[in-house]
Amino acid sequence: MAGKGTPHAPKTDPFADVLRHVVRVNSVHVHYVVAGSGEPVVLLPGWPESGISWRKMIPLLTATGRQVYVLEPRSFGDSDKPQTGYDSILRLATCTISWWRRG
Fold first, then answer.
1. Residue 38 and residue 102: Cα distance in Å, rounded?
2. Whether the predicted pLDDT of 1 surpasses 50
3. Minimum mean pLDDT among 25-29, 51-55, 81-85, 86-90: which range?
4. What are phi and psi of 62, to 5 degrees?
5. For residues 45 and 72, is the Cβ–Cβ distance under 8 A?
């Protein structure tokens, strides 16, 4: 049945209403987004996800008066993907703490 069917919805950017940032943390470019204002909430993706996995939670949290930070640590989403440096959870924690303190 050519010509019939439902048109595809245009693809939209799930982070259209957030501010995007890239900073250098421990020699790695790290991508994060910020939305809302108020008490901060930091969201980290689980492996092998990216920050986009939080797209439905961001508006819910900002509606309750939170400022939402979605960090994409090394190798996640739009952050750098270096060849080395994935040897421990300590490295991830250090990167996350360094990112938070940079502000």
1. 19
2. no
3. 86-90
4. -65, -30
5. yes
Query: In the predicted model, what is the mean pLDDT of residues 60-86?
Result: 87
- For the segment 17-23, the average pLDDT, to the nearest whole number, is 87
Name the β-bridge partners of 20.
Answer: 33
* b/e map 71-94, b = 16+ CB within 10 Å: bbbbbbbbbbeeeebeeeeeebee
21 in Cβ contact with 31 (< 8 Å):
yes
Q: Average of pLDDT values for 63-81?
A: 88
pTM over the 0.85 mark: no
CB 72 within 8 A of CB 78: yes
**Residue (of 32, 40, 25, 39) closest to 93 by Cα position:** 25
Q: CA-CA distance, 3 to 100, in Å (whole number)?
A: 53
Smallest Cα–Cα separation from 69: which of 95, 90, 47, 38? 38
What CA dihedral angle connects 57, 45, 68 and 35, to 10 degrees? -80
